[in-house]
Amino acid sequence: MVNTGLKDRSNVGDKPQSQTQRAVALLRDMVISNKLPPGSNHLEAELAEMLGMSRTPVREAAIILEGQGLVEVRPRRGVRILPILPSDMEEIYSILTELESLAAYNVAQRGLQPEELAELRSYIEEMEEALGQDDRQRWAAADDRFHRRLIQLAGNGRLENIVATYWDQVHRARLLTLYIRPAPHKSNADHRALVDAIADGKAEEAREIHRQHRIAAKETMINLIATHGFNAV
Q1: Of 215, 198, 207, the residue nearest 105 (C-alpha)
Q2: DSSP one-letter string for 159-193
Q3: In a 3-state reduction of DSSP, which class is residue 124?
Q4: What InterPro entries does the database record attribute to this sequence (predicted)?
Q5: Sign of the C-alpha dihedral, residues 231, 181, 9, 210?
Q6: Beta strands in 94-175 (DSSP E)
Q7: How far is CA 68 from each of CA 4, 113, 176, rounded to the nearest angstrom?
Q8: Which of 37-41, 100-104, 149-153 has the lowest mean pLDDT?
């Protein structure tokens, strides 16, 4: 998973990672990348062997990830990777839509430096190039960087932290549906329109563009999950 922009919640400052922090980072990556499939069950000993560490930090990491909505810790039965449900995506996208739209409004209102606008546009160009090569993984990585950087540029740490709480769950679903969704050309057009509105200082327009962009993403995601049965695992 690309880790640009939004804060890495598994580490604090520049201190060396504890075993628990390391377990959180490794286990989260395995869940988000779907190396541990939605609905699968795993004993602590199994996960500890996968991560190359003792069971204690793995148990502590699982509890942390349970609080983030990625797993379910079941006493004496191990860890269950939570399925991706349409109802969950409905709730999460509803929250993210409003918060990210607010971020877009704030960014447009305060304005960006030329180099910041150029950075956002570089991600859009990378997305366009990736789509031209039918490289969905590269497109997703550039899209991820674009949205994370936009949130960061809003300059609201609390908003950034709240968005980060839900981002992993959305990213997991996006990776799962990456190759069965239509090519996201409309998404790239939305990105361009959004950056143009930000560059022109049109805060309300930026907010509405981003809101409609996220609403469309939500509808696509929920339809894919329901149609392909990811909610049944």
Answers
A1: 207
A2: HHHHHHHHHHHHHHHHHHTTTTSPP-HHHHHHHHH
A3: helix
A4: GntR_C (IPR011711), TF_FadR/GntR_C (IPR008920), Tscrpt_reg_HTH_GntR (IPR000524), WH-like_DNA-bd_sf (IPR036388), WH_DNA-bd_sf (IPR036390)
A5: negative
A6: none
A7: 19, 34, 18
A8: 37-41
Assigned token pair, 98? 């409003």
CB atoms within 10 A of CB 104: 28
* CA 146 – CA 39 distance, rounded (Å): 30
Q: In what order do the strands lie in the sheet with 41-42?
A: 41-42, 78-81, 71-74
Contact 150, 217 (CB under 8 A): no
Give tens-digit pLDDT for 52-106.
Answer: 999 999 999 999 999 888 899 998 889 999 888 889 899 999 999 999 999 999 9
Within 8 A by CB and 6+ apart from 209, the residues are 104, 190, 193, 194, 197
Helix (H) or strand (E) holding 14: none
Which CATH entry fits the domain spanning 19-81: 3.30.450.40, 1.10.287.70, 1.10.10.10, 1.25.40.10?
A: 1.10.10.10
